[in-house]
Amino acid sequence: MRKKLFALVDCNNFYVSCERVFHAHLAHTPVIVMSNNDGCIVARSNESKKFGLKMGQPVFEVEEIIKAHHIQVFSSNYSLYADMSDRVMKILAEFSPRLEIYSIDEAWLDLTPLSLPDLTSFGRQIKSRVYQFTSLPVSVGIAPSKTLAKIAHEIAKKHNAYAGVLDLTALSEQDVDQLLEALPVDEVWGIGMQYAKWLREQGICTVKELKYADEAWIRKHLTVVGQRTVLELRGIACIPLEPEPNAKKGIMTAKTFGREIKSQEELEEAVANYIARAAEKLRSQHSLCSSISVFIQTNRFKKDVPQYSASLTRHLPIPTAFTPDLIKQAREAVRAMYRPGYGYRKAGVYLSKIVPDENLQPDLFGGFSLDVHYKQMRLMAIVDVINKVYGRDTLFLAVQGITRTWKMRQFKLSPHYTTRWDELLSVT
DNA sequence: TCTGGGGTCCTAGGACCC
DNA sequence: TCTGGGGTCCTAGGACCC
What we know:
Helix content is about 40%, strand content about 20%. The strands form 3 sheets. It has a 5-stranded mixed sheet with strand order 5-6-1-7-8. The chain has a 4-stranded antiparallel sheet with strand order 9-12-10-11, with helices on one face. Helix 11 packs antiparallel against helix 12. It starts with 5 loop residues before the first strand and ends in a 38-residue tail after the last helix. About 35% of the residues are buried.
C-alpha cells in the first residue's frame, strides 16, 4: 500500500490576520481579538504574544499591559472570519481533490495521489497563492500522518528558517527525531493538559519519548486514542482524511449574558432565542431532534454569592425541528429549574438524538400527522430564507423578546466588511 | 465591573434481556 | 447454603480539539 501523505494548512493568528486585512496600518503592531462578551483573549498577533498575553486569558487581567503597549483590541466578528475562511478554503481546494476543512482556520489536503516531485515548493505555492488572493498568511506542514503534519506545521510557523513550510518527508528519521526531541510532549495534537501532566510524571517529557513509548502501556492509560497518536508519530497514518462534513450529533447554543438576569421571564426569553438559533442550525443540516436539554447557571467566578446551576433534558415523542414546539419544551424546562433570588449569568440549550429529516415515520397511533409536520417544515423554511436574505431576526417569535438587554457585549466590533453592503470598506 | 462557545470520541458501569 | 453468564444499550463523565 502506498504511504499516505498529508498537508496541514493553517492560517497564522487567523482572527487577528482577518482584522489586519481591513486595517492595514495594524501590520507589525500588537493586536488581540476577544471572545464573546469581550471576555477572554482568543487570538494574538506575534507582537502581543511577546508581552506575555496568553490564549484564553481574561482581558480584565491584562488591562494594564494593553494600555501600556497600545495593544489594539477587537471584539470577535465571526461573520467576517467565516467569510474570509470560505475564501481561503476555495483556494486550497484547487491544490488537491481531497480536502478536509477541519476548523475555521485550518484544513488538511490529501497529497497521497498527487505524486509531487518537490513538496516544499508545492507548500510554498499554496502559501503564496492564499496570500495573493486574501492577504492572509498561512503555514504548511507536510508529513505521512495528520499528527506529524500538525507538528511540521508548528515547527514551520515558529522557526523563520523554514519560511512557513516544512516537509518532514524530506528529512531522515534521525533528523525528524532530533526535531521531536526538542518539542515538549504537550505540543502533540491529542495530548492535552491532563495527559501531558501524567506523561511527565511517568518520565515522558518530549515528543520523541512519546513516539518510542510502549504501545500497550499507552493504550492502557491513554485509551486507543493515545495509542493512535503514538502510531501516528511513528509515521503510520491512523486518522483518515474526512472530506465530507458529517452531520452534527448534537447542536449547542450557549452564551454568557451581557449582565446578570434575575427574572424568570428574561431567562425564558434568552433561552427561546438560543433555541431559535439552534433549531436554525438543525434545519440547515436537514435534521430533526428528539432530545432537548436546557441549562442555567449563576456566575461561577463570584465566590462570595450563593451559586445555583441546573440542567434538564426532555425527550420528545416525535423528532422535530419546529422552533415553536422546541421553545415550548425549553420554556417549561426553565420554569421547572428557575429559583428566584439568584443572579443568572449563563444559559444554554443542547439539541440531540438527531436524525435526518427524511426519516420521519407517521405515528401508528395517529397522535401525529405527517401533513402537519410538512406544513411546519415549509413555514420554517420560509422563515429561514427570509432571515438569511434580510438578516438574522427579521422574523422571530414574540417570546424571544424585543429589547434583549441581556445580550452579549461587543464594544470593539469592526464592520462586517465582506457580508453587509452598508459596511463595505470605504477608501477616502 | 470584567473570566467564550461549540464540538468529538472513549470508557465504565448500570439496566435489562435471554 | 447455594445465588450464571454473556450480550446490548444507554448514560454520565472525562479526555481532547479549535
